From TrEMBL:
PROSITE patterns for this protein: UVRD_HELICASE_ATP_BIND, UVRD_HELICASE_CTER
Reaction catalysed by this enzyme: Couples ATP hydrolysis with the unwinding of duplex DNA by translocating in the 3'-5' direction; ATP + H2O = ADP + phosphate + H(+)
Record-given protein name: DNA 3'-5' helicase
Gene3D superfamilies in UniProt: 1.10.10.160, P-loop containing nucleotide triphosphate hydrolases, PCRA, domain 4
Species name: Planococcus plakortidis
Any coiled-coil regions, as ranges: none
UvrD-like helicase ATP-binding domain: residues covered: 14-294
EC class of the enzyme, as a word: isomerase
Keywords: ATP-binding, DNA-binding, Helicase, Hydrolase, Isomerase, Nucleotide-binding
Amino acid sequence: MSDFFERKKQELGVELNKIQKKAVTKTEGPLLLLACPGSGKTTTMIMRIGYLIEEKGVQPKRIKAITFSRASATDMLERYARFFPGLAPVDFSTIHSLAFQITREYLSAGDYLMIEGGDSNRLNKKRLLKDIYARENDEPITDDQLEELVSFISFVKNKMVPKRKWKTLDEPFPGAIDILTVYEEFKENHEPRLVDFDDMLTIAFEALDTDRKLLSKYQKRWDYVMTDESQDTSMVQHAIVEKLVENHRNLCVVADDDQSIYTWRAAEPSYLLKFRQVYPDAYIMKMERNYRSSGTIVSTANQFIKANKLRHDKNMFTDRPEGGPIVIRRLASQEAQLKYLLKELSALEEYGNVAILYRNNSSSTLLMDELDRLGIPFYMKDADNRFFSHWIVQDILNFMRFSLRPERVDLYSKVASKTNAYWSASQLKQLGRMQPTKRHAFEEITLAITMKDYQLRIITEQRRSMDALKDMKPLKVIQAIRRDMGYDQMLKSRAEKFGMKLDYLQQILSTLEQIAEPLPTMMAFAKRLKQLEEVTRQAKTEKADDMLTLSTLHSSKGLEFDRVYLIDLVEGIVPTEEDADDPALLEEARRLFYVGMTRAKRHLELLSYDKESRFVEEVRRIALPKMKKAETFNRSATKAPKTKITVPHNPDAVSSTEELQVGAQIRHRVFGNGRITELDDEKVGIQFAKEHKEFLLEICLQYQLLELV
């Protein structure tokens, strides 16, 4: 045994600690391995597989390793090949891949049709749900509702909730259970049977539960089974694994209940607490040594998560230096937070080991807008283009288009139901059939549609308001739409009717207003949104080593960075109002905060504004003795703290716009050499080798970003 570890130390430079070695050599029977953040769990798992093969004589094909995500499966496969290049492959796969394999054997090929995993199929899952919703509600489903519906259906299937109990569930919006029922019946009655990803799991369990021959085949295929990230595993996934190992019981479950953040996807962290009820002879081990973060971050995070009650007690520690204190800043507003972040980032010379983490993707839009203006390169871990196709964004653009083209009755018909004119369903259908003429749309509407007197008065007022928009700056236009067209009131009504979150809807409008603020015209605003949509697409697909990382807290799990900023840490976001009202959800929100904290290796900043998150206050109480000298926050939050930022001095930097001219060769501190193609009082356009960028002159001069070549 000691020869194995010594040999691997010589060959790979990998040296395991005492607990890791014990986890590697404890090969027989059920084992629950609780792995704290940064504790080297993947290395331990790979070494355990190698130990089984080299020391215990197990054939590689007799070992099954199951992961939560495809990326994890790929990572483990690559690391195994690097650690043990001479050994035959081991079967690494996701639980969905395994379920598909079982489903394919259980159902003959002609008896089912997959409706997920590709959009080319006419019978696509989301397309089916859109059609069912439209039939049930006589209006199209929004992107947000569709995502909620997909998550709800997945939750029900993964929780193995029987159909008779569906009516007792909390719906994401009124009518969701009815849509689920219609959807499931349609799939089951269709010829051939329709199967989505969640069905694969339930069918795989059904197969193992009812087909003794098939169960025996899979039980005999592997002598050892390992599961990774098991805190993210659902009830049906656990049930499949239980079936596979019920004979030999050689199961190693690697998990961290403190990092379970997917209960909304039906993850079952409580399973880990009940592990010995399922496997009475189970051995439970804790890998508590953190190799990633500074002493301050580790000790603070360890104390912070202990506020949760439903967990295995662990004491995470590290031998790394204490490092600097955790920085907590409470700023005056979201805008002040953004300005502070930009100053911080502008003072950095490298971005590759820096991350900004947030709860919701909506937090990234404004940040992305400013980073793009400043010329700071960034990568988005989970770029979400849905913001730009959101119905609110499209509404605002259609209002703007209509104000510039008042004869376009077709544009007004798209937003008519969102105004204060109280259109009836029949009137809206008439509007939808109208075609543009040379006359003002409101004149055509007045002639074509019979209206109540109060509607005529409102239409007259709407025309006056719409005609005034064309001379306004885009920020004023959005504010006028919200106020004069009754748009804010409509949002409130729709939120109540469809169970939407009003704060979220209003945040979209607030984001649009902030994007619009520096822009002179509605055309410039529409163009900027298009640019940002393209920037978002590129930020997802184009990743370079020296790029800042933007990520949701959920998607950051498994990542690590020298410098981490957690932003928008306010009540209503982390935790949400729903979290605050439910003890179990509040514990999950605390786990999510913990995941964010433990991504940082050396420097961690917690940024808030308005009503500061209770979690920030919990961290402050824990860390206060270590951070008294460094912390700069104002409990009254009346104004943002003044922060001295040092810009790297560049004696050759351009200091005046008079030094610049179109055609000049220029060097940008981040993007390198290029040529000036556009220049005005506010911005400069530069063509680089692979792309064209626009920058605000004020920022370029202030932060010494440019020099003449």
